[in-house]
Amino acid sequence: MDVINGFPGLMNYWIVVFLMMTGFYIVIAQDNLVKKIVGLNIFQVSVFVFYITMGKIKGGTAPILADGTEIYSNPLPHVLILTAIVVGVATTALGLAFVVRIRDAFGTIEDDEIQAMENED
Amino acid sequence: MGIMAVIGIAVARLHNLFAVVMLTGIFSLTAAVLYVVLDAVDVAFTEAAVGAGISTVLMLGTLALTTSEEKPHYPGRHPWALVLVLLCGAALIYGTLDMPPYGDPTSAIHHHVAPYYLSKSAGHTGLPNVVTSILASYRGYDTLGEVFVVFTAAAGVLLIIGRAKIGRRRTRRMAPGELSTSMRQNVILRVVSKLLIPFILLFAFYVQWHGDFGPGGGFQAGVIFAAGFILYALIFDIDTARTMIPPHITRFGLAAGVLLYTLVGVASMLKGGTFLDYSVLAGDPVKGQHLGILLIEFGVGITVAAAMISIFFTYARQER
Asked: What SS3 state is found at B82?
């Protein structure tokens, strides 16, 4: 706890930006389709962390009402991200299904090879 | 968070996709720990079950069906990508300078609906877990939408690779449990998982019905329930697991969960309320809210579990 709390206030956001850009780089610069999907996942997690970070209140606790606690962290981002994670895995599965299908049709999952094949036709 | 950054870089550099997938699992677990530190216990729960469990299994399934080595590239093929990413990152960092500092109770997002939910939800729904109250009651429309997205995605997976198509390369069917031949001969794994699976399923039910008091709810329960079955299928036999939950049951469950959710909404309309206003479901508004939340969480659980199980079996039974 204290390690994170001790940092200057914007540290979390900077790491979020770093992760987001890592994911973005993987998506645009890598040719492997599975890796692109992993990149999208990293991008997604960075957005999740961003939301949850905004919901945190210093000294607060988890938003489950109990006697004796006054400060709760903001529950709204938690709800949004909770559902987003499950939707995220469902859409990831859909993306991976496309990858499997593309491999069936082209015999490769490298983006540049698929492009080359398309250009030949 | 430093660990997450390091893993991110490793993922970008590695060529062995198997290692990449494993790192993604670790990445998710790290994220889950971070969510606990940031007080988001419900979210951490979901991330641990989904990110580290289900999505890793799905990615491994894809690798088994395609290839686990990335074609080697010489570095620096995309100089403009790096430039673009750096520019974007710099712009975003500049944007964060206007953000409120970490943990600041005076920042804007804590001043609109959040205090209202925190102070009123106990009186409206009688539930201590504010996250569940918001998820199921105040924001019931959103959640219904999310459940429909899960439903649609699972239906999409079934349509795209669910059955053998004409013209597909057909060499051989993946032998049952081929993902895990070595796993299946391991006595320790077999014995331990046999003991654990009933408890995993029981835990899923606990999470389902206790989600209104502690962390948990339909989304987490559905994923944990599916994970129990997937574990069984991986360690023992995919075909046996499939006979326990045949395809038509998962397909039925997929639709039934969404239907239950919607019907609760329609029922509250018939009883004189608005769509998804549970207060009218029982004589006492608080009891009605509680009943409605339990029912729709159950619907969510059914759909999510059915979606995950059917997606998994679709991958496992592919022909490659």
From this structure: helix
CA distance B249 to B148: 18
Spatial contact of B133 and B286, defined as CB atoms under 8 Å apart: no
Helix (H, G, I), strand (E, B) or coil at B237: coil
Q: Do A100 and B156 touch (CB under 8 A)?
A: no
* ipTM higher than the 0.85 cut: no
Contact A38 B89 (CB under 8 A): no
| Distance (Å) of CA A63 to CA B14, B107, B133, B211 | 39, 18, 11, 13
With beta carbons under 8 A apart, name residues in chain A contacting B146. 83-84, 86-87
Output the CA–CA distances (angstroms, integers) from residue B128 to A64, B3, B27, B122, B165, in the order listed. 5, 34, 31, 6, 50
Helix (H) or strand (E) holding A104: helix A75-106
Question: For A30-43, how does the pLDDT look when each residue is reduced to its tens digit (9 = 90+)?
Answer: 778 888 888 888 88
| Enclosing domain of residue A91 | 2-120
